[in-house]
Structures are given as structure tokens and as C-alpha cells.
Amino acid sequence: MIIPWTNEFISIWLNLIFALYFWVILILDMAHGKEFEFNKNDDYFYAFIACFAIASYLTVTTAYLIFYSMGGVYNEWLSILVYMAQITLAYALTFCFMASELQKTDDFFTVLFIIIVLYGIVMVLSQYEFGRKLGFWLTVGILSTIVFFDLCLNANKHRITVMYIPLIIEGAILSIGIVLLVFQIPERYFTSTKFVNLYLNSYIIFTLFFINFLFEAYNILYYTEKLNSEYLDDDDEWWKTKNIYNTS
Question: What is the pTM of this model?
Fold first, then answer.
């Protein structure tokens, strides 16, 4: 962790720093800090869930990177904890976005109930190796379907602009990091270059892209909540929604 010439040095500190950042944000949310500008308790609650999931994931990942080299049963349990944190993150973000999106519809309870029940099932499956693979594909399939139907059947022009377009953009950026990680670029072309292999390898690049995605997803959730609770200002960012896309 403190030795700069190890492969995990940059990744550990990236995860640790942003984990601390999101724990601080979580405390501010619990205190209903003025930074949030929410006027409904439900919005604070959804922001709390998302922030807790992000902070927990980054904290667990930091612990894994520090201790996985111990090997054996420690590595096995740490791997399971990372998987559970990843699954929790996916369900928490989907739950919060859908709760905000569907709060005034008849589908609100049904969709959230499906997400919660499926999360419980996947957590049970995570205790078994075959269950983790099954749980992963269940998560991808069902959560993607829920989001797709919300986009097609429920989202209006403003919601698409404030929520879906930014998420698609951030997802596209994240996909670049995933491709680099899968094909181990750039280190596969610089096998003898120590700097690239230690400080600019594909895992570090992916970590940067993924943390960026989490940071932006939380911001997008913030503005989505304000929009769906009908107090999003015209000059609020992710970008200036009305000025660019809704000039009528």
C-alpha cells in the first residue's frame, strides 16, 4: 500500500481516496446538508442508498487489493466480498434510479419489489461458485430489462435528457476501459517498460474509468431526483438541460 513500486499502489490509493470521499458525502446526506438542495426525504434516502453502495464497494475493493496477496482462504473470501459489493452496487443504483423514475406511476411498488427480491436471491446464490455465475447473468438480464422498459414506456423527453443520455455517455466511456482491461492494453505492447506496467496498466486505466462512472452516476442520480420531484433548475448541471434540448 505504501510501496510505490508495486502493481497495486495506484489502484489502492485511487479506491481509498474516493471511498473516503463518498463516506463523507454519505455523512452530509445523513445530516441533510445544504449541499444537496433536496426538499423531499425520499430523495435523501435514495441518495443515501446509492452513496452507501458506492462507498462500500470502493472500501471492499481497497481491502481486496491490500490483502489478496495473502492467498488461500483469505483471497477466496475477499473475492466473494468483492463480488457481493459489485452486485449490491448494481442493484442499489438501479433501485434508486427506478424509485425516482417510477414514484408517480402504478409500477413503483412492483418494480422495486422485483429488484429487492432478485437481489436477495442473487446474494444467496453468491455463496456458491456456480451461483455467482448464474447470479451475474440474472442481474444483467433482469436489471437491463427493467431499465429498457422504463426507457421505452415511462421516460419522457426531460428524463431521457437528464438521466439516460448522460448514463449512455458515461457507459460508453466505461466500455473503453473494459476493452482496454480485457485486451490488457497498453502493457501487452510495453512488456519491458516498467513505468507502463506499474503506473499505466489496463487495470489502473479501468479503475479510473470506473470511478469516473460511479462519480458521474451519483451526480446524474442527484439531478434525476430533482427533476422527478419537480425542482430541477434550468441552470442545473449535468448539462444545461433546457437551454440545449428544450428551447420550446
Answer: 0.91
